[in-house]
Amino acid sequence: MQLLSTEEAAAFEAHLRHNPSMREELARIRGDLATYSHTVEMHSPPALTRTRFLKRIARERKAVPMLRPIAPPLQLAQPVMQQAAQANPQETEAAAPSIGAYQRSTGGAQVFSFETEAAKPSVISRVAPWVGWAVAAGLAVTTTQYYRESESLRSEVVSDKAQIDQSSAEAASAREVLNAMNDQAAMKVTLRKPFAPVTPMGRTTYSAEKGVLIFSATNLDPIDTFKVYELWIIPANGKDPIPAGTFHPDAQGYANFVLTNLPKGVEAKAFGITIENEGGSKVPTPPILMTGA
Q1: DSSP string for residues in 155-199
Q2: Which of 49, 146, 260, 288 is deepest in the core (most CB within 10 A)?
Q3: Domain span at residue 224?
């Protein structure tokens, strides 16, 4: 930023000549500052700011001429003036009054040179070196803010990814359960008391809020090829039974299926099973073979 004094700059340059790592660091910093300078959008100053700035410059103390006597006293210069009068008496007489008055105002000494007060550095020259630091500081603040926002977004992404992974794992597990239930080659075993009479049995898991039903049955009697078992939902509000899927048991009397597209919000009072023609029916055909409340 050219802010070092002459002595400090000389010492710093001497140190740089013997320190390669510092030369690399200085080159990197200069490159960063050059990059920062190109990222700042230039704006015109507001009119009020410009007016205030010009007024402040107008109040600065101006350089005032200072009179300095540098010639010999008047009596030493009289012979020279007499020679000039003999050469051109008219010009000497015309200039004599003004010269005498000027000599009286300056104490009898001839003055013919001026020295001006050393100009003080302007406001712009004092402020300009700090503009680069101000820009760098502003960019540092902006970069810090962007870094914090990126870290927050990264944390949210990590959290969302964890939730997605968990949901994917749960979906995969549910898919495996569903595939196992619908696998015709899967082993199906019913546990019961030895020598107890074998009777058909069905189990239903039903969620009215989600409209999902899981059904499994064992020991069902075989039926004709063109006939099917049909499950019915008997609503609690007394309306007509709602068909909840058809199925055909295997050779051992087992059957299971899952429905996920049933009407939501239908509270069930009971479930029933009838035998219908292939394709099912919209109303149950008596008699109801199996029922559960």
Answers
A1: HHHHHHHHHHHHHHHHHHHHHHHHHHHH-TTS-------TTPPP-
A2: 288
A3: 201-292
Q: Whose CA is closest to 219, among 292, 283, 289? A: 289
Provide DSSP, 53-86.
Answer: HHHHHHTSPPP-EEE---SPBHHHHHHHHHHHHH
φ, ψ of residue 66 in degrees (nearest 5):
-120, 130
Residue 168 lies in a domain: no
pLDDT tens-digit map of 38-95:
676 666 777 787 788 788 877 776 655 555 555 444 444 455 455 555 555 554 454 4
Model confidence over 243-284: pLDDT tens digits? Answer: 988 988 888 888 888 888 888 888 998 999 999 998 888 999
How far apart are the C-alpha atoms of 2 and 236, rounded to whole Å? Answer: 89
Q: Which residues of 4-34 are buried (b: 16+ CB within 10 A; e: fewer)?
A: eeeeeeeeeeeeeeeeeeeeeeeeeeeeeee
Total number of domains in the chain: 1
Task: State the CATH number of the domain containing residue 225.
Answer: 2.60.40
